[in-house]
Amino acid sequence: MADQTYQAVNFHFAVNFTLQGAKSVDIKFQSVTGLDATIDTETVKEGGENRFEHVIPTRRKYGPLILKRGLLAPGTSGVTDWLKKAFDDQIYETLETVVISLLDEQHQSLMHWKINNVWPRSWKIAELNGTRGDVLIETLELNYNRLIFQKS
């Protein structure tokens, strides 16, 4: 029988923080966006050559990483405590690594993305609305300076 290759689904994933005090609830997010890298370019005009310009790569840019989840009660999340330190106390702890893993049916990692030097940039709470019965969502926007894709 020939090998069958299936495309991965995007709804089974985990986010692991290398954070002292992180709890099991801290891997569960509704959505993750911002796993992107862009290479900046610079245009160089060569003297005497008028037919074209050289475009050369310069720096890489990343993110920001945006995580969404249902709002958790105070004290139940190490990530929430980390955010409170930054936004309430102005104590900015940079996390060395955050790993986003795409999981298979057995909850094993198919592939993962490591992001380095992570710090909180924004923390938003969704609209409070008395006419709707939605889950209250918090949105975390994290800055980082390196993205590494790895197959597990």
From TrEMBL:
Designated name of the protein: Glycerol acyltransferase
Protein origin, superkingdom: Bacteria
Molecular functions per Gene Ontology: acyltransferase activity; structural molecule activity
Entry keywords, A to Z: Acyltransferase, Transferase
Keyword Isomerase included in the entry's annotation: no
InterPro entries: CHP02241 (IPR011747), Phage_T4_Gp19 (IPR010667)
